[in-house]
Amino acid sequence: MNEIMDRLRQRLREATYAFFESHLRCTPHEVEVLREQGFVVIRVRGFLTKAESELLKQPQEAKLLTDYYHSMLEGVYVPLDEVIREIEHRVLVEKQAVLEVEQEQCVFLLTLGTKPEA
Questions:
Q1: For the chain, what are the domain ranges?
Q2: What is the pTM of this model?
């Protein structure tokens, strides 16, 4: 079971890095994956550029940047769901992204369910 968990964490980490690099054109400093019972938490740290960090100092610009990231981050669930289906044979039933731009991090909260029978 530990081997499956380790593989799941590694593949989710890789899928998250790949999404940020291909869709957001940035490489996060760290991607941490935690798995407990029917939940997965993915914490992504250090993905903002210096220019984006400067924009956060202006409230109107910070809102635009936050809105931009919220819309772009929706796409990460497709590759994460694929990894979960492949390794654990489960599906995402709930998902939420908590964007904390002031701390330069995003936390993905995932709830897993059983895979429906075809």
A1: 2-29+47-105
A2: 0.90
